[in-house]
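Colleagues,

Please find the record for the two-part complex below.
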Amino acid sequence: MANEKIPYKIYLEEKEMPTTWYNVRADMKQKPAPLLNPGTGKPMTAEELSHVFCDELVAQELNNTDRYIPIPEEIRTFYKMYRPSPLVRAYCLEEKLGTPAKIYYKFEGNNTSGSHKLNSAIAQAYYAKKQGLKGVTTETGAGQWGTALSMACSYFGLDCKVYMVKVSYEQKPFRREVMRTYGASVTPSPSTETEVGKKILAEFPGTTGSLGCAISEAVEAAVTRDGYRYVLGSVLSQVLLHQSVIGMETKAALDKYGIKPDIIIGCAGGGSNLGGLIAPFMGEKLRGEADYRFIAVEPASCPSLTRGKYVYDFCDTGKVCPLAKMYTLGSGFIPAPNHAGGLRYHGMSSILSELYDEGLLEATSVKQTDVFKAAEYFARVEGILPAPESSHAIRAAIDEALKCKETGEEKTIVFGLTGTGYFDMVAYEQFHNGTMTDYIPTDKEIAESIAKTPGIQ
Amino acid sequence: MANEKIPYKIYLEEKEMPTTWYNVRADMKQKPAPLLNPGTGKPMTAEELSHVFCDELVAQELNNTDRYIPIPEEIRTFYKMYRPSPLVRAYCLEEKLGTPAKIYYKFEGNNTSGSHKLNSAIAQAYYAKKQGLKGVTTETGAGQWGTALSMACSYFGLDCKVYMVKVSYEQKPFRREVMRTYGASVTPSPSTETEVGKKILAEFPGTTGSLGCAISEAVEAAVTRDGYRYVLGSVLSQVLLHQSVIGMETKAALDKYGIKPDIIIGCAGGGSNLGGLIAPFMGEKLRGEADYRFIAVEPASCPSLTRGKYVYDFCDTGKVCPLAKMYTLGSGFIPAPNHAGGLRYHGMSSILSELYDEGLLEATSVKQTDVFKAAEYFARVEGILPAPESSHAIRAAIDEALKCKETGEEKTIVFGLTGTGYFDMVAYEQFHNGTMTDYIPTDKEIAESIAKTPGIQ
């Protein structure tokens, strides 16, 4: 009966929107391991990082102590254009599944970038602008991050140079065109524009690219140009900080109706969405104020948390980036070509890696065809065509809800619906035509990939 | 200062959502002319119409008297999944234009169909289900209506058969794939599945199709099958009735903040969005309670209101439909192949035609390249990539706001942002590459098209 008071969609009012980001590191007893300089083996200093990142972002990257960091007014103004995002009660999904579970999802897809990535893109563009830079460089895989950054740069009048993983560049011409609409220049990676791109092309002439490789190119392009810095859409602690706006809004919306979740689920590639969604809830858990189950859902074809090794590794294929301690499949790992969508990064955010290592976060992996079954089911029942990435979380949420059906437990499940699949119809078409396949790397393949990565010590 | 209280986005609460549709015909002194049976020349009876449409929809089509029609509970439940749509204050656009005008837009694109079409699709599917039908047939041009109907039929478990204008079918494979995700069958039109399709193909072998032709096929497919009816996404009075939910929400949101618009602008193809958006405001004007300027914006390449003739004409190319009195370019009119997006119907809703004829509604036409200039400008400033259709309204709204800049008038402008352009990137690409062209039919072409349409009496 209390349920009847809960609307299908909970929108915060503008005045209820978060004014600060939440920095989960402040509440972690064991801090995430620092980035290391691969040359010296010592922690990266702010000065060293400032060649790659904007100064304010370097400060955020190294900030393990401040619990709340104010969101600058300019960023809050931009947030108001597309936030708050709705927290949706999945009444139709619950009814269709016949589960006693109560399912909510935080929907981040109602903006032109099509995902949560815009939350950090606008922050990073803002700090670049504030520092008086000309522009920024980045990589993009499935294209969501590149689109988000293009929009953010357009808003602040910054130049935006995107290295797009070649296979996505070719498969997703429309994503590319959206980025062009926002004035970005988009280059398929590996390219001959950079030294590292040329080297990778020489070594692997037929390569369709990888995120790790595109990162290397984007970093090189940034450090060899005046007035440019590199920005990254996931993995880094600064990105998880910005994405905490997802969790802050979710918590505020739940609190408004006195709802306490039992399980919080998110898909995990580099960890930005999951890290942001769970942040304030994890904070409560770390402070002993509440308890929740957190589940990271990753693709079976790129299972860094569930099958990777927790060691120092390079953040990129070309080894131009610092070393990060993380669950990794080896920085040379590239998911099988049949892998659709994002979640193709070889490692995992240091914050999430540490939380997982301490047993504060669970992880599971799901097969691609099972993910698309869940995606189509969800689209028909809840009316939103989900991104392949987001559908990993849908799969796990449905599975948890079906467990509740068996046990009769009325658990409250919250998951992150990170984005929409409008630019992923090639993958949906393969699914409809029955030509979509699964690929699960063997233990040997993973062990070899990890072994041959020189970053791992 | 009062402005500072108005948030970027006004969302109604669930309990504030409209519970009735508003039927503007009840307040029109001069009712729209009735549909005529082309055989007898007499008004179509309910019995005659019931072969094509569901019984409840026939009743709504013929209802010129009831001002408010309750929205059935099941439809309101579906509306709650994706409505209310936000009424957005375009603060960023105002600032960028440097206009004293206050600009608002009602954004209908935050659902997977990508447009307002879902508002009527779910209503029509509901009545079909209620009548115990097996399925429905329809046509789609740019694909928004077909997608919306696929979603609605999936929700109610109805079969959905879509005839898609051939040029769109070929240019928009992803739209087709979204419809397949929702279980619809999609056939390029003209096809050899119907007698009328075969006839049109024989007469014009190279034709890329038209909406009027796809309508003929869909109607034939409905009336020759047991348990099927035809549904239409625009033009009809029943559709404008369902779309009044846009205007009802807009008015409720404005009233909440005591805002009175001066100008209300919408793009116009068949008239469903514009008719729905202006409905309750037009009601006030008709009853002498308030005054507003209403502007219909149509493409220069398909200018039914601004250059058509107000006469009885067939609703479709194949002449299997009744005759409607409307502003028309002739039912054989097909926009030039360079015309992108929707708004390609040869006629205009009888309701809007009558209001225009009485001078209660203004109309203007805009060139395609000017429309895309406005679209890109809007995308960069307001962060939403608009559909080409919606961008006609953006163009006119910007032009009105710039007039205010000249005169210093602080007018309040409301326009309908009917949808997103995520499936229109081919057209955006043409625009970026400078290969997009304009075509304005000559007076001679229009006169000939009107003259050779036998429906015109």
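The first helix of chain B runs from residue 46 to 49.

Comments are welcome before we finalize the supplementary table.
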